[in-house]
Structure formats: structure tokens, C-alpha cells
Give the backbone structure.
Amino acid sequence: MRFVMNKIKIAIIFGTRPEAIKMFPIISEIKKYPHLIDYRIIVSGQHREMLDQMLEIFQINPDYDLNIMEQGQSLSNITNNSLLGIEKILKKERPSMVLVQGDTTTTFTGALAAFYQKIKIGHIEAGLRTHNKYYPFPEEVNRHITGVLADLHFAPTKQSCENLLFEGVKREDIFISGNTVVDALFLTIKENYIFREPLLKDKKIFENKIILMTMHRRENWEDPLRKTCRAINKIINEHSNVNVIFPLHKNPEIGRDVKGILQNKENILLLDALDYDDMINLISKSYIILTDSGGIQEEAPSLGKPVLVLRDETERPEAVKAGVVKLIGTNEERICREVNTLLNSRDKYKEMSKSINPYGDGKASERIVKKILYNFNLIDKTPDEFKEK
């Protein structure tokens, strides 16, 4: 029998909106084990306003908030401030394990601070790779380094597991869990959802086919973003039965270029960044998704929405292989061609709108928490790994 009555302390570290979304189901699952797990939530505030939206929606109350965000902050500032702040907290709390998620600078510094204190590290969403250190930047290197530091790798898919094995990680240190973003999606989607964003309360908007568009990656700033916006203009001019909804990232670099090309155009709705629950339910009502977001590549397939990815590479190739996500880059002519194909061909649209999600089944958080308990000898049965359909 492995079962030993004891209690562990877990430090959950995150600092951005996507991390909060993917950590929320983990926190909810941990709360089911108050007799076995004590936990502390540490947020860096790497994204301030967007993170605060998530904390409010999910009713997460951090135990520590470093509030590191500064106007015009550099990656070096984020790294330095979060590393020093997290280190102080870990010295005080002495957790049994630190949990970090994904590929942000907070993820990297949280893992590094834990390593310096010789604290075990669990890396959620481990093993994603593009094999190009500058794409996405700086995320690809962040997740590589976190993978080197981690003790327990929660790989969302078989492919991410194979990436880790290729890099020399031992199979017994890898656990294929599925992705917690699917857990969060299932907890949030509602059939009769009422939007908080006032401009989305008008039901007439949804009488047309909706193209939902998002862009925020650093490598897509400036010229790639402007090319994409010009393509959107052409598409709207050709299709009177289409509305484009573009929630804008908080970064003013993005908003300036987008508004310069798309503002005050008929059938184009530019919005401030949406709350998570508004965004998820907008995805469910959309016809096509144009995005450079990794999270949306994971979310939309569960809802049967074709995703055209405004990137040349992706660290999430599973949905591409499944045929529900397609890499199209930011070439103006190609964007027009790919979108027009889905708008004009019912067969092509049907091929990409299968409700298939290789990233999860809504039970990733349950598997992850049980695996942690098993590794600390607090339960005597290891959970089964996620099997992709």
C-alpha cells in the first residue's frame, strides 16, 4: 500500500490571462482535497488588467500578488522582478511542489526560483515545441528551459510527450494529462449565454456569419498585422453576409494599426479585449476563427469551429493533423483565398468543422491532481493517462 496520511503544500504560480484560464480548473480540483493539499496562489501580475479580469470571473483570491507590470516593461524587467519576488515567497512558504503552466516568462522564473530552492517543479502543458527558438518569441525558449528544470511533466498530448522523450526526459517523469484549457471551456460554455459586452447584446450581429479574429503575438506586430487587416477589408467587400468581430489586445501597438485600417468599416466590429466567458461563448457562435492564439487553437476544435492560424509554425500540431486547424501565415492573398474557400464551399467547411479535440476531454485537471497525490504517496492508485481520439 502506498497510501500514507500526510499533507503537502503546493505553490501555484501564474501571471497572465491564459495561465489563469488553464490554472483555474487545477485550483478547483485541488480544493476537493483539503485534507491532503494545502495550497498558495502566487501571481506575478505580468499582465495586470487582463489577469484581474480572470481572477474576478473565476473568483480566485491570490495569496501573493507581485504586481510587477510596468508601462513599457522589457522582458528583462519581467524576468528580474518576478524571479526575485517569487524567490522571497518560496523561502517563506517552503512548498512541497511548485506548479507552473505553459510558456510565459512567469512560468520560466517560477520554475527557476523553485529550482534554486530545491523545490519540486510540476510543469503543466509541458512538451510543446516549434523547434524554432524565435518563434514564438520568447515562449519557445521559456518552455524549453522550464522543461529542463521540471521534475514532473504534464504533457497534454502524445506528441508533446514524444517531444520530451526526444530531449531526454525519462518516461516515468512524463504524464499525458490532456489540456486543462478544455476543462475550463466546458466549465464556461452556456447555451443561452448573455454577453456582458454591450455591443454583443445586439442579436442582429449574429444573423450574419461571424469571422472572429484575434492577433497579439510579437512576431505578428506591424507589417504582418497590417497585411491581415487589409485582407479582412477585401473579404468584407466580397461578402455582405459576413461580420468580422475583432477583440483587440490591450497592447497599444496592436490597436493603433488595426484601427488605422479597420475602424469605422461596415460589418467590422472592433472591441476591447473580452472577458474570458464572453470570448468562449463568442467562439461558440462564430463561423470561422482567424487567430495567432495558441489557446484558441485548443479551444475551438471542441466546438466544431474551423481555425485558420495566422502563423507559419505552431507548437500545437495535433489539431492541424486532425484537419480542424490550418496554418496560413499572414500573406494577404492567402488569407483571402483560405477564408473565401470556407465561405464558398460547404464541403470544405464541413471537413474543418468536425467536433474533434485532440487536446483533452475535460478531465485533465482531475488526472493532474491525482498524479501529484500519487507521486507524494498520498493515494495508492495512479490515474490513467489521456488517450487521444
